[in-house]
């Protein structure tokens, strides 16, 4: 994995290459919500674009992977690279709010997200899908892959995230609501309100 953090901005780029995928992910926490995303998985691209727009981060993500085998490897490795770029861009998190939570509706779906820029990776995932639920788009993004993306992102970003759905019936809606809610919480938690690291330990 190759990384590059921009010295004067809260921005970073990470390149990750394995025998299964090649991913480049750039993030700017002080952006304007512009996204350029190309992973070869159209529905996943749509979700990542929602993440960029509603966080007001600038995202640039490109990925090539073994999609003929499965979409899982690409989704997971994008999560790792994007999470690592977030961690680098956030740096010491000096002055950041650190905590955020939100209940977000999308038609019949209602999703809640709570997060902490804790330095301790933990995902609590509370959205269950039937084992035989069909994928969305072509190549398919299976709804269960959302948990894999969130876990990879959270682990690499070293943050704590809780996600749960109060209600839903349309898988597209509950997935989109979860990405939008994560985005808004990241936007709120990374706002700078001072210059101190938001921890009595002095480090996150």
Fold and architecture overview:
The structure is a single chain. 32% of the residues lie in helices and 30% in strands. By secondary structure, the chain is an alpha+beta fold. The protein has one domain (2-189): Ribosomal Protein S5, domain 2. The strands form 2 sheets. Strands 1-2-3-5-4 form a 5-stranded mixed beta sheet, with helices on one face. Strands 6-7-9-8 form a 4-stranded mixed beta sheet, with helices on one face. Strand 2 and strand 3 form a beta hairpin. Helix 1 (42-55) runs parallel beside helix 4 (171-189) and helix 2 (72-90) runs parallel beside helix 3. The longest helix is centred in the middle third of the chain and has 19 residues, at 72-90. It starts with a strand and ends in a 15-residue tail after the last helix. The model has no long low-confidence stretch (mean pLDDT 95).
CATH class: Alpha Beta
User: What is the general shape?
Assistant: globular
Please give the radius of gyration in angstroms. Answer: 16 Å
User: Low-confidence segments, ≥5 residues, pLDDT <50?
Assistant: none
Query: Which fold name corresponds to the CATH topology?
Result: Ribosomal Protein S5, domain 2
- CATH level 4 superfamily: Imidazole glycerol phosphate dehydratase, domain 1
Q: Please give the domain count.
A: 1
Helix and strand sequence: EEEEHEHEEEHEH
Distance between the termini: 23 Å
Total number of strands: 9
Instruction: Report the helical percentage.
Output: 25-40%
CATH architecture tag: 2-Layer Sandwich
Largest sheet: 5 strands, mixed
What structural class results from the helix and strand content? alpha+beta
Instruction: Please count the helical segments.
Output: 4
Mean pLDDT: 95
The strands making up the biggest β-sheet line up spatially as 1-2-3-5-4
Beta-strand fraction estimate: 25-35%
